[in-house]
Amino acid sequence: MIGEVGLAGDIRRVNGMARRLSEAARQGFTIALVPPSDDPVPPGMHALRASTIVAALQYMVDIADHRGTTLATPPSHSGTGHVPLGRGT
């Protein structure tokens, strides 16, 4: 996860998001849990965008339950559908 969690449970963008995503991709991560933004995502990386800690936790539970398969975006999140899971190949 890259971001800041507010007292109300909202997930906020932090400075240097593009740089942080690039470094995560360089380290072999293929998924990043981030707040909604227009920040570019490096090739080969998928950004799971969550605006609240509840949505972020739902992603994490789904990842744990379906490790190595696919993940459907939580109903409360308007996303693109399914993304592959995992770190590196």
From TrEMBL:
Q: Where is the composition biased (Polar residues)?
A: 70-79
**Where is the signal peptide, in residue numbers?**
none
InterPro entries given in the database record: Ribosomal_Su5_D2-typ_SF, Ribsml_uS5_D2-typ_fold_subgr
| Chain segments carrying region Disordered | 68-89
Q: What's the name of the protein?
A: DNA repair protein RadA (DNA repair protein SMS)
Quote the gene name from the UniProt entry.
radA
